[in-house]
UniProtKB/TrEMBL annotation:
This is Response regulator. It comes from Phenylobacterium terrae. SMART domains: HTH_LUXR, REC. InterPro entries: CheY-like_superfamily (IPR011006), NreC/VraR/RcsB-like_REC (IPR058245), Sig_transdc_resp-reg_C-effctor (IPR016032), Sig_transdc_resp-reg_receiver (IPR001789), Tscrpt_reg_LuxR_C (IPR000792), WalR-like (IPR039420). It holds the Pfam family GerE.
Amino acid sequence: MLRVLIADDHEIVRKGVREVIEAHPGWEVCGEASDGQEALDMALREKPNVIVLDVSLPTLNGVALTRRLKRELPTANVLLFTMHDDDETVSGGLAAGARGYILKTDSGRQLEAAISALGANRPYFSAFVSELLLDAALNERKRSRLESFTVRELEVAQLISEGKSNKQIARLLGISIKTVESHRAGAMRKAGVRSAAEFVRFAIKHNLIQP
C-alpha cells in the first residue's frame, strides 16, 4: 500500500488531491495537514511514502519543511505541488530535497504520474520545470538565496514575516530570545535587508509567506 500525506492550506486543493489518490488502487491518504508544522508532526507519526506539499504553507513553509523531512524522515519522497513557477522557488525546493515538482495548473493525470514515480523512488517534474532544469544544466545556474539559509533561519524568517515578535518566536520554536535574535540577524543579512518591512517584501517575493 502506497501511503500519501497531503499538506495544503486550501481545503479544496486537499480534496482534489485526495480524490486522485483514492481513485488509484493500492494508494491511501494517511493524513491531511493545513500548515507546515502540522504536516511535519503528522509525517513523523504516520511515516508516509510520499508527501504532497504546497510551497506556501503557514507556520513552516514548504522549502523549510522539505529540508526538515529530508533530515528527519529520509525514507519519504517529497512532491512539491504548487502554483509557483519562478526559477528561485523551483531551485530552492529541489535543493531542499524535493524529488518531484509539478504545478497546480497541470492535469490530474500528471499528479497521478508524479505520485506513482515518487512511490517507486523515481523523480518527476512537470514539463515546465524540466525545461528550467535543462536550461540550468546548459547555463550556470543562479543559486537561490534561500539555499544559503539554515532550516532554523527559514523558520524564524517566516515567523518574522507573519508579524511574530522575538518573544513569540522563541516560545513557538522552544528556543531562547537571544537565539532568535541571532537567527533573525543571520536571515536578514542573507536576505540583504535592514528592516522588517524590507524583510516582509523579501519573504513575499520568495514565497515564504503569501501576500
